[in-house]
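Thread: zinc ion complex, take 2
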Amino acid sequence: MGTNNIIFLEVIEWFDETGQELIHRIPENGSGEIKFGAQLVVRDSQAGILFYKGKATEAFGPGRHTLKTANIPVLTKILSAPWGMTSPLRAEVYFANMKVFPNLKWGTKNPVAFKDSELGLIRLRAHGIFNIQIVQPILFINSLVGTMGKFTTEEIEEYLKRIIVSRFNDYLGENLDSILNLASHYDELSIALQERLHKDFTRFGLNLERLYITSITPPPEVQKAIDDQSRMNAIKDLDKFVKMKAAMAMEKAAESQGEAGAGIGMGMGFMMPGMFAQSFAQQQSTTGNVLQAQTSPSSGAAGVAIPSKQENNCPDCHNPIPVDSKFCPLCGHQQLVFDQCVNCGKNLAPNAKFCSQCGHPSDEKPAPATCSKCGQENMPGASFCNQCGEKLV
Ligand SMILES: [Zn+2]
Ligand SMILES: [Zn+2]
Ligand SMILES: [Zn+2]
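Output below.
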């Protein structure tokens, strides 16, 4: 990515033929020089995000936007001189796909270590699926692209999957003494995992619509050991054993667990700002069943408030407010979230250097949890080591 690879941008738009991309950067490589008065074309269910000096600074809803200082007040604040007349603006644009991404697969790449009270240290594999939707595009770009340096859809999905596996590992470490008892904890596990991850994903401006565990499997040698006669003696209760076998083979279908888990965590986090929710609602009504089919039943469309006219309701004080408000004019609630403090989760104002609540620097990265026993770097906030199963302090 040499700086000599400069692309002059006059019309900035993106059409995702694959339907698989969460985000797309323009230009794809190198830097962009945006001409004064350039056209930014944002399609339905997209958000256009202006990325300047490593930060997302402004979000644009669907429509055609002419990029001039007069139209983008935030630019006047960022740039020392008004943008215009002479030099183009060196910046990038990210497009965020705001639709629901259904049936993404997660799973353990390497099996996670679990200290089983009866079987000793064992390595478990787990797989499942999840649905996500970007609800706060600026926060999404700032937290994952800006802070964590994940630039492509693949890198972002990979990172989200690692978080899921890490929280799964934590849940087992904190709540399960032996996989022999897994069967009785299975439902709790799915629900608790989804709740925990909903919080994690909210920090990235994402709504985790659903998350399922489809299988939890011990390695063949453990399975064999369990089947082994000598091991059988350790398992006094045969009924337990049968239950465990059921749990191992459990292909807990998404369908059965589905609707029960669907509403979880909907009250937490935040809604999609009016400027995006509006277009999404319109699009839904025009494209009707086609989109409906992709985006799951309407009960699942958490952030998509259906506003009438040019108004939207503040999720905090519930008063009607203009759709493009970044803050509620009545209660000050931040509608379009720019960044969140990694320490306390407070919404940060654009260009804040420090958190107004706890004083931590706004560009602080979440620190990985390093295991004191094996040295493995675990995901920030992890409580059990994925590598050796040790409790992290
Ligand atoms: Zn309000
Ligand atoms: Zn803070
Ligand atoms: Zn470790």
